[in-house]
Amino acid sequence: MILAVASGKGGTGKTTLSVNLARMFGSAVRLLDCDVEEPNDHLFLQGTTIKEEIVTIPIPQVDESLCDGCGECGSFCAYHAIVSFGTKPLVFPEMCHSCGGCAIVCPQKAIHEADKRIGVVETIQAENITLIRGCLDVGVAMAPPLVRAVKARLENGQPAILDAPPGTSCPVIAALRGADFVVLVTEPTPFGLHDLKLAVDMVRELRIPFGVVVNRVGIGDDRVHVFCRRERIPILLEIPEDRRIAEAFSRGELIVNALPEYRRLFQSLIEKTMSVESGKRC
Ligand code: SF4
Ligand code: SF4
Questions:
Q1: CB-based contacts of 82: which residues, under 8 Å, 6+ apart?
Q2: Is the Cβ atom of 72 under 6 angstroms away from ligand 2?
Q3: What is the C-alpha to C-alpha distance for residues 53 and 55, in angstroms, rounded to an integer?
Q4: Is the pLDDT of residue 279 over 70?
Q5: What is the Å distance from ligand 2's center to 119 Cα?
Q6: What is the Cα–Cα distance from 77 to 80, expressed in whole angstroms?
Q7: Residue from 62, 83, 91, 109 whose mutation best tests the ligand 2 pocket (most atoms within 8 A of CB)
Q8: Is residue 69 within 6 Å of ligand 2 at its C-beta?
Q9: Whether the CB of 71 sits within 6 Å of ligand 2
Q10: Is 128 exposed, middle or buried (0-12, 13-18, 19+ CB in 10 A)?
Q11: What is the per-residue pLDDT for 281?
C-alpha cells in the first residue's frame, strides 16, 4: 500500500500530515520524502542516518574529433538541450532529460554519455519509520529523476507514505504514479480551493483513488466543503485551526506526541485509506 500525500500548493500541512501518519502507523513503514527541492520530514523525526547515496543522470558528451557538425542531434532533441549551428554542438545539461536519443541518431557515433550528479538519497531510521529523503543539489532543475530514485527504495510488501512535492508539475506526477491512494491536503480558503481544483484534475487524470484532508478548519469559508460535496469527493479528515499545532510545528514536534488527543484523528485517516485496498472507497 502506497499512500501519497499531495497538495495543489505548498504550506497547506502536507509535511505535518505525512510525518504524523507515519508515526501513527505503529508497525514498520517507509516514509518517502519526494519533495526533493525542500525535503523537511527529517526535521520532525529524531533518527539516525544509515545510508547516503549519490544519484546521477547520464548527460551527452560530444567527441569533437568525430563530429562533422551535421546537426542531427539538435534536430532530434525536443528539449533543445543540444544545439548545433554547423559546428560541434553545445550541450545544456540543465535542460537534458537523459533520453539518450541524440547518441542514437548521431551518424558519426560522436556522442557518449557521462554521469552528472543531481543529488543524494539519504536513508534515516527513526523508530518504526524508515525515512528515505531525496535532496536535490543546488542549481539542479531536474527533480523527476531524483523523485524516481527515492521511489526505487520502496520495499516490496512494506507500507509506505509518500510526501509528494507541492503543485501539479512534472515532479508531482513522477511522485504520484504508482500510488494506491492520494490524500489531497487543502485549506478552507479561496486560494486553497483554487489549488485543490487543479490537484483534483491531476489525480483524476492519473486515475488514482483520492480523498481530501482539510487543514486549519475554522479559518476562511465553506467553499472547499461545498466543492467536495458537489464533486462527491470524500473529506477524510478535518484538522481544526489550533494554535498549539502551529507551536508544536515550530518546535519540530509531532502533533501526535505534543497533543495526544489528536492521535485518534490520524489513526482514523489511516484506517479509512487502508480500506481502499479492499475496494471499499474510491
Ligand atoms: S539525451 Fe535526450 S534530452 Fe538530452 S540532449 Fe540528448 S536528445 Fe536531448
Ligand atoms: S549528430 Fe553527431 S555528428 Fe552530427 S552534429 Fe550532432 S554530435 Fe556532431
A1: 60, 62, 73, 74, 89, 90, 91, 92, 96, 102
A2: yes
A3: 6
A4: no
A5: 29
A6: 6
A7: 62
A8: yes
A9: yes
A10: middle
A11: 41
CA distance 46 to 74: 49
Place of cell 543531481: 118
Ligand 1 contacts CB of residue 102 (under 6 A): yes
Is the overall model pTM greater than 0.85, yes or no? yes
C-alpha cell at 83: 544545439
Where are any strands of DSSP class E within 210-279? 210-217, 235-240
Q: What is the pLDDT of residues 193-251, one digit of tens each?
A: 999 999 999 999 999 999 999 999 989 889 999 999 999 999 999 999 999 999 999 99
Site to substitute for ligand 1 among 96, 113, 142, most atoms within 8 A of C-beta: 96
Under the banding of pLDDT at 50, 70 and 90, the label for residue 55 is very high
From the CB of 100, is ligand 1 less than 6 Å away?
yes
* Interval between CA 97 and ligand 1 midpoint (Å): 6
Asked whether 99 lines ligand 1 (CB < 6 A), one says yes
With 50 as the cut, is the pLDDT of residue 280 above it?
A: no
